[in-house]
């Protein structure tokens, strides 16, 4: 059956109209979702501009990780390519998703997993953490299943955050700023500083009146890591084994981290035959000064990160060999 010329024109016009509507929807959605110049948006965007298979060692996890390890300094001063890949408020289920996306472009020889969330049940994930961790990530089945796990089986919200986050953030058009337009028009330029810093976030602020609890906290009852966190570590272990990478658990300096928490993660690492490095236990060797080296109780500032980065070099080299 032959189609009339007018029918063909009508079909073509309809398809063009649909394509324009879809493009306009996607552009509007990309514009209104939250952007973070010093968090997940800039970090995950910068990561996509790395040369493929150019990273030797990958740090993954929550914000404590990218405030502790100066990946730029490590890369430039020691000839080993490092990158800090994560976002604030990151649950282990989101770390698993980030790790999967990381391996789409890189094959690191060493993976350093920050364990601040290892003992956290993750029963509730706030809107800020969802924005930090997911808004910059493209829609995919992997993103949906990660959200499904994070949101404890909430299918409607998982679908919304995966495919139509504009529903959640439709009202942001009232507060759009230059970052929103910069990201939309030039994502590489938006993340250029983060790409240069290799994901590291320098913070100059100095928080006063802190103490590292680990130094004085007496051993307490070990906390059992939630089953899904243990399964996440096992999953990352298997993927590391598949690509020939070594997995190491580590804990950033943290004034709220306790000896009992450290003992719990240490026991888990032993059970899984993994190396565990708690930087709190080496605070004196590192030279950390709680009156100068913390941005807040749970994050190092630039000065603390410089000391920690310098101290950890021999450990990284030993585990990369």
Keywords:
single chain; 321 residues; alpha/beta; Rossmann fold; 5-stranded parallel beta sheet
Verbal overview:
- This protein has 321 residues and is α/β, with parallel strands linked by helices.
- It has one domain: SGNH hydrolase (Rossmann fold), CATH 3.40.50.1110.
- The chain contains 16 helices and 7 strands.
- The strands form 2 sheets. It has a 5-stranded parallel sheet with strand order 2-1-3-4-5, sandwiched between helices.
- The longest helix is centred in the N-terminal third of the chain and has 28 residues, at 5-32.
- The N and C termini lie far apart (69 Å).
- The model has no long low-confidence stretch (mean pLDDT 90).
* Strands side by side in the biggest sheet: 2-1-3-4-5
Q: What characterizes the major β-sheet?
A: 5 strands, parallel
The residue-averaged pLDDT reads 90
What oligomerization state is this entry in? Answer: single chain
By CATH, the superfamily comes out as SGNH hydrolase
Termini gap: 69 Å
The helix/strand order is HHEHHEHEHHHHHHHHEHEHEEH
Gyration radius over CA: 22 Å
Helix content: 40-55%
**Please, how many domains?**
1
- How many β-strand stretches? 7
Structural class: alpha/beta
Query: What is the beta-strand fraction?
Result: 5-15%
Task: State the name of the first-level CATH class.
Answer: Alpha Beta
Tell the overall outline: globular
